[in-house]
Amino acid sequence: MSRFRILLRQIWTIARRDFVATVFTPTFLIFLLAPVVMGSFGAIGGLGANAASKGADAKTRIVAIVEPARSTDIAALDLRLRRLYRQSDEAPPLLQTLTPAADPAAQGRAQFDDKRVDVVAVLYGPLAAPHVLTTPMSVRSGDYLALLAEEALRADRSGIAPLSTATRTVVSRTAPSLRGANASGFFAVFGLFFLTLLLAGQVVSGVAEERGNKVIEVLAAAVPLESVFFGKLLGTFGVAVLFLVFWGTLISQATVLMPPSFAAGLAGLTPALGLPVFTLLFFAYFTTAYMLLGAVFLGVGAQAASVREIQLLSLPITLIQVAMFGLGAVALSRPDSWISTFAAIFPLSSPYYMAGRAAQSGSLGIHLLALAWQALWVAIFIAVGVRAFRRGVLQSGSGTFRWKRRRASSDKLVDTDVS
Predict the structure, then answer these.
(1) Angular region, 86: left φ>0, alpha ψ -120 to 50, beta rest
(2) Could you write out the three-class secondary structure of the chain?
(3) Region 208-215: what's the mean pLDDT?
(4) ∠ CA(36), CA(41), CA(46), 5° rounding?
(5) CA–CA separation, 177 vs 250, rounded Å?
(6) Which residues contact 123 (CB under 8 A, 6 or more apart)?
(7) Pair 209, 310: CB distance under 8 Å
(8) What span, in angstroms and rounded, lies between the C-alpha atoms of 332 and 339?
(9) Are 127 and 66 in contact (CB under 8 A)?
(10) What whole-number distance in Å separates Cα of residue 4 and Cα of residue 305?
């Protein structure tokens, strides 16, 4: 029992050393605010793309070449139908009506050559059997023009009949919506991928740096390498937990300051198990994913002796993370296929997929089984990581140890010759 207590004390000492060395530095504040920088660049890019898209949409048109007597009916129908779209991205482009020329077919084709606006669909001919011209990417706009012609035939020549007066009542759902559960699932998969990609990679640089300045050899001489490995893994995990607590508290307190549309979008994320249970499961899957990747990164970091080697060794792991994220997202959209079964069983993709499944499935049994399965693979990865860590650390000083043995043997040989 005392031996086990000594081992725990050694692990705690290494973990506390790495935690303090990471957190109590000025650069940690930059690391803590990294999502703000990334989100700012994403928001700027999104605003630029949105502005460019709106500028292009303002110059996009659909054209109806109809008789002047029918142009008023078509325009009124268009205004009535657009009430259903409001500000939706699926709304058709703005409608423009033209008076037919001598050759309506040639007039319709000529609209696509207009340099001032982008015409994507044109209707011409009698409304009973109109001709609709569209570009390959605007078939829906052509369908909208055909619908306008069909509705115009049903309308009275004196004008469009007004809409009926409806009684509207807003009701609230008691059960989570399927759409909200699916959105929560994808959000969980992406969140787990983002956090592991951002936080697990910091393990590599610390090990390689200590290996380069021989600090790792001092630690290995003072405590067993297993304690060094577990201590570093727990120390960096503590930094990750601090990161999660900081941003989780900040987001929970900032919801009142969010725009109403953004707050409504967050409110639409309704996990099937409920938010408290889902939060606990998400943290559990984050723990298993971090331990799996952390063990791999520690073993990789012990093999690297320079920053270049770190980059070469870390790139394949990062690509595997991206592949596991894609596999988890695809499996989440096909929950009853062989892809979902494979994603749930494969150890590297299991945390991603099951974190998303926690938002879709109301059963706790499958998650307890998945966590037990992942815990088994965490133990396997840690065992393999310890062996790779031991081999890398011992090889880092093998040249020095060899040189000392050679010098000791040569000195002994000289003493023998002198005697």
Answers:
(1) left
(2) CHHHHHHHHHHHHHHHHHHHHHHCCHHHHHHHCHHHHHHHHHHHHHHHHHHHHHHHHCCEEEEEECCHHHHHHHHHHHHHHHHHCCCCCCCCCEEEEECCCCCHHHHHHHHHHCCCCEEEEEEECCCCCCEEEECCCCHHHHHHHHHHHHHHHHCECCECCCCCCCCCCCCCCCCCCHHHHHHHHHHHHHHHHHHHHHHCCHHHHHHHHHHHCCHHHHHHHHCCHHHHHHHHHHHHHHHHHHHHHHHHHHHHHHHHHCCHHHHHHHHCCCCCCCHHHHHHHHHHHHHHHHHHHHHHHHHHHHHCCCHHHHHHHHHHHHHHHHHHHHHHHHHHHCCCCHHHHHHHHCCCCHHHHHHHHHHHCCCCHHHHHHHHHHHHHHHHHHHHHHHHHHHHHHHHCHHHHHHHHHHHHHHHHHHHHHC
(3) 69
(4) 120
(5) 27
(6) 62, 63, 64, 65, 66, 108, 130, 131, 132, 133, 142, 145, 146, 148, 149
(7) no
(8) 9
(9) yes
(10) 32
Strand order in the sheet with 94-98: 94-98, 60-65, 118-124, 131-134
- Rounded to two decimals, the pTM is 0.66
Query: Phi first, then psi: what are they for 123, rounded to 5°?
Result: -115, 135
Reported as a single tens digit per residue, the pLDDT across 327-356 is 888 888 887 888 888 988 998 888 988 888
Which pLDDT value is given to residue 406?
A: 38
Count of residues making up the chain: 419
What the block records as the tokens of 22 is: 């990471």
pLDDT digits 0-9 by tens, 296-315: 877 777 776 666 777 777 77
Tokens 């298993």 found at: 288
Burial of 62 (0-12, 13-18, 19+ CB in 10 A): buried
